[in-house]
Write a structure and sequence with these properties.
With about 300 residues, this protein is mainly α. Helix content is about 70%, strand content about 0%.
Length: about 300
């Protein structure tokens, strides 16, 4: 059995792109002490708003901007619920996902139920003709700009140090003059923007259209990737690549005659089983941020 290795690697980078965007947004959230289960809904909103804005304006830049704004608003909603109101973070995140998915599906059905707008323009690959380096602009940005930038922010910037302090010990951070609520607001809004941009990749780069359930659980995968990577940028990126290479491999195996008798459902489940196995092995004994899931109220 000869597998096209370079084709699988090229597909791996493409598949990993939305995961890297969203998972790094989740890292920013969780290093501030807030678990955001609204990733799936935020990605969904980014995918739909990016598509809708592009379809109505004819401008991909406007579509990316709309996706970005949707992520900012989704992050602000999570911040309002968890930081200001002190709502249980699990409930707030799941509620945010349900709300955003429902609003996007309702609006999509309202506007496009007659099939008048099913496709729109999308980004081209920077290097046409196929090959490992034939990727979309957001793929290059994710691996060459975003991941190094987030790593540097956590390691060397004042904002990153404040973020980590708030996520580990908000009482001590508050005593040191760090505004806990403002820092968590900033983390959730910034993280939401990255998640939505990851969702917009699906419509504005891969498909050029919006379909129901387009995110297909990628948001939940990102939550597992953050734990797998232990809230560190490069291990999280590595986890995204691990899932993506498993997904790319199952897509190739599905069209390989040797695996023609293997149930398609089993092949589809393969990358998810890989993530579960990796999480079970490397996720044991993981040390969570000190203030994880804990709302803070100044005494």
């Amino acid at each position: 059995m000869n597998l096209p290795v370079f084709a699988i690697l090229a597909a791996t980078l493409t598949i990993a792109t939305p995961l890297v965007w969203a998972a790094l947004g989740a890292v920013i959230n969780e290093r501030a002490g807030v678990l955001n289960l609204g990733i799936e809904g935020t990605m969904y909103a980014g995918a739909f708003c990016g598509f809708l804005a592009t379809a109505m304006s004819g401008s991909l830049a406007f579509g990316v901007g709309a996706a970005l704004v949707s992520g900012l608003l989704a992050g602000a909603l999570m911040a309002l619920l968890t930081v200001t109101l002190g709502v249980n973070q699990h409930v707030a995140g799941i509620g945010t996902t349900l709300l955003l998915v429902a609003v996007c599906n309702f609006t999509n059905r309202l506007l496009f139920s007659d099939g008048s707008q099913t496709t729109t323009e999308k980004f081209d690959r920077l290097l046409p003709g196929g090959g490992l380096l034939s990727q979309y602009p957001m793929t290059y940005v994710a691996f060459l700009v975003l991941a190094p930038a987030v790593w540097w922010v956590f390691r060397s910037s004042g904002f990153g140090l404040r973020l980590r302090a708030v996520g580990e010990n908000p009482e001590a951070a508050d005593a040191a003059g760090i505004p806990v609520a403002k820092t968590r607001y900033a983390a959730l809004i910034l993280g939401g923007a990255l998640m939505a941009l990851g969702g917009s990749f699906l419509t504005l780069s891969l498909l050029g259209s919006f379909t129901i359930d387009i995110v297909s659980g990628r948001g939940w995968i990102c939550i597992a990737l953050v734990i797998f990577g232990r809230w560190q940028v490069w291990p999280v990126v590595g986890g995204a690549l691990l899932f993506a290479v498993a997904d790319a491999l199952q897509l190739q195996l599905a069209i390989t005659p040797l695996f023609s008798d293997v149930p398609n459902e089993l092949l589809i489940a393969f990358p998810y089983l890989v993530v579960i196995a990796a999480l079970a092995i490397w996720g044991r004994g993981v040390r969570y941020p000190g203030a994880y899931l804990k709302p803070y109220r100044r005494a």
